[in-house]
Design a protein that fits this description.
The protein is low in regular secondary structure. Helix content is about 10%, strand content about 10%.
């Protein structure tokens, strides 16, 4: 039987090569072979795949047009759910661009040349099932209007947005991830109030001088690095029971601007206050695990900032404590710290 199979294959192989098809070529030329098989098995439901993109037969609801040097959005078949248009030179999104793409779930338009004026005001209106919209690394000066309320993940960082108003994010009850970092935002108003499901908010590297109002109560990660915030509102973490990660390095925070016990809240896992203007270690919860205070102006190691009572049963769960670049040395750490900070693998000064 094996002999017959070998004879049959040896007879067929020359025939395959004579017609220009290498039966093993797919191992080494997957991209080319994908186009070959695609021409035989392509799904044309709702329109054919445009020549400048790839619509794999094995994943017919996806359309890959990334990194093709495109200046405009090609025609989109109605079956497409996942559209990849990143890393192109697309500068305009007219109403007609997505008129047939009402089934989109993911739309990736990052790393293009989009401006706010060049995005039609109604282009996103009919995308009622869109969950992910990536618009980072463009030239937007505002959040596009009429974004789908179905969005769960909006990434619009690395643009030139200067202000966010309530109508920009109105009705987005499903949004869980919002990346607005690396913009020029100086004011958020009460725009975050409507985001009832938001768990991750990144506003780092903007021009904020205060904490935004009406923070969503389900926040889990809150990033505010590289702003100009010099003070915090009274009890601003009090209503954020699920918040675990707060990063506020590279701001202008002073001890005077931080109300007492601001960070003495259970649930907080990581707190980064490095590169500010603190002169004292703020009081933190005994449940905090990672504290970053390097490059401040701290002059004293106050053990009471970590433990109000120091004994066998009362101790801090802190694992990481960084204090490099301050005005204290290893000799300033009191002996009692070994009991209070028994979980800390190292204290870096």
């Amino acid at each position: 039987m094996r002999l017959k199979t070998i004879i049959l294959l040896s007879a067929l192989l020359p025939l395959c090569f004579s017609y220009g098809w290498d039966p093993l070529g797919w191992l080494f030329h997957r991209h080319g072979q994908a186009q070959y098989f695609g021409s035989l098995q392509a799904d044309t439901t709702g329109g054919a795949c445009p020549a400048e993109c790839d619509c794999p037969p094995t994943f017919p609801v996806a359309m890959y047009c990334d990194g093709r040097g495109l200046n405009a959005i090609p025609s989109i078949p109605s079956r497409i759910k996942y559209l990849y248009l990143q890393h192109n030179a697309i500068s305009v999104v007219p109403d007609s661009a997505l008129i047939n793409a009402t089934n989109l779930v993911w739309l990736f338009l990052h790393h293009n040349q989009l401006t706010s004026d060049a995005i039609s005001k109604e282009v996103f209106l009919k995308l009622e099932g869109l969950e992910r919209l990536f618009l980072h690394h463009n030239n937007l000066t505002s959040i596009p209007p009429n974004l789908p309320r179905s969005l769960r993940d909006l990434r619009i960082d690395h643009n030139r947005i200067g202000k966010v108003i309530p109508t920009d994010l109105e009705g987005m009850d499903n949004l869980t991830i919002l990346h607005l970092h690396d913009n020029n935002i100086a004011d958020m108003g009460t725009s975050l109030k409507a985001l009832k499901s938001l768990t991750l908010l990144d506003l780092s590297n903007n021009k904020l001088i205060k904490i935004p109002d009406a923070l969503p109560e389900h926040l889990h990660q809150f990033y505010l690095e590289f702003n100009s915030i010099d003070s915090l509102p009274e009890g601003f973490l009090g209503g954020l029971a699920q918040l675990q990660y707060v990063r506020m390095s590279h701001n202008q925070l002073t001890n005077k601007g931080i109300p007492s016990n601001t960070f003495n809240v259970t649930g907080l896992v990581e707190l980064d206050l490095s590169y500010n203007k603190l002169e004292r270690i703020p009081t933190v919860s005994t449940t905090l695990q990672h504290l970053y205070l390097q490059a401040n102006q701290i002059k004293e190691f106050t053990l009471g900032s970590f433990c109000s009572i120091v004994d066998v049963t009362n101790f801090s769960r802190l694992q990481t404590l960084r204090l490099e670049g301050n005005e204290i040395s290893q000799e300033d750490i009191p002996l009692e710290s070994a009991l209070c900070l028994r979980k800390a693998s190292s204290i870096q000064i």
